[in-house]
Amino acid sequence: MLISEVAKIAGLSKDGVRHYEEMGLIASTERQAGSRVYREYDPAVLTTIEKVRQAQRLGFSLKEIGPLLKAHGAANLTPEQTVVFLEERLDVIRGKLKVLQEVEAFIKTKLDHYKKEKLSRSDKKI
Fold it and tell me: Within the chain, which residues score under 50 in pLDDT?
């Protein structure tokens, strides 16, 4: 498959496909066609791209996904290992949510403060 086909089927831009390849998440082979060289992708990259997207939905960055793909490809996880892995990931996500909730509370406090300050200034002008 050529990059345009992969991009269209996967719902990525060509640059997105190239980025995945630069990150080592997918691979292609060179194909000579006259004086031009094309990158050819095995249809299996579509499955890999879907795995990458699933990992992103679990909160992994692209940098974190590369080693996970290699590890997953080298060993088939048992259902028990998968449960442990997902539970650990859920703990990480919950930690991130807690931090975000703390940031949200801080911002709300600041907003309330500045809104009250604005109201008190406008009351003094009357």
Answer: none
